[in-house]
Request: fold
Amino acid sequence: MRILVTGGRTGYLGRHVVAAAAGHDVVAVGSADADVRDPAAVQALLAAHRPDAVVHTAYVQSDWAVTATGAAHVALAAAAFDARLVLVSSDVVFSGDDIHYDESAAPDPITAYGAAKAAAETTALAVCEDVVVARTSLILGDGASQHERLVHALVGGAEGALFDDEGRCPVHVGDLAAALVELAVGDHRGVLHVAGAEAMSRLELGRLIARRDGLDPDALRGTSRAGLPGPVDVRLDSTLAASVLTTRLRGAREFLAP
Reply:
């Protein structure tokens, strides 16, 4: 099966998806191959490679043209060339007001990035018949994520603290990548929550990272995110994913165990 992975050249998740798809005919693409903001370039990319499936991981958090409009261009091209689409989305499509969210919950973003992801979801679901919108949470686990690098910096004396009142469901990047490949070759359609098995604060997550890496977890300081923009407590219910996927989505206490 030919799988095209946007963000597959330099993106953190995209590179893991490419690795997880070993055994398939994988086409890893980046911004040098096609600017997703350019619909003609995206159409030409899919015309050249004719993938059976597209896993769209590419985004720029602060850029609507990439995250929302670019995803729309990818969705339209996937539909035009009869390619299955796996669109990676985020828990920030929710405000956090309800805390617990399953796939039936309606997006109610309160940040520009959340709104961009929600717009990307809406377009993909509208124009693609064969599509999965895979919502996920904090991605880490291989030692190279921004979350893990931040913990090392803070333990090393950098200024800053970790939120102790923000609930998320961290997922191991390898588990998520394997799940996305499984979805690309499968037949499940619609929205699916693909996050870790347990919720925790960023401070608790940081301390787990520190312990795994032989650092002092008590060197990390907690702080509240109250009053800052963005959702405070968003916990994705991935029960459906557990029944659909053979890939097991571990909780952070398990995958960060020393």
Notes: The domain at 2-255 is CATH 3.40.50.720 (Rossmann fold).
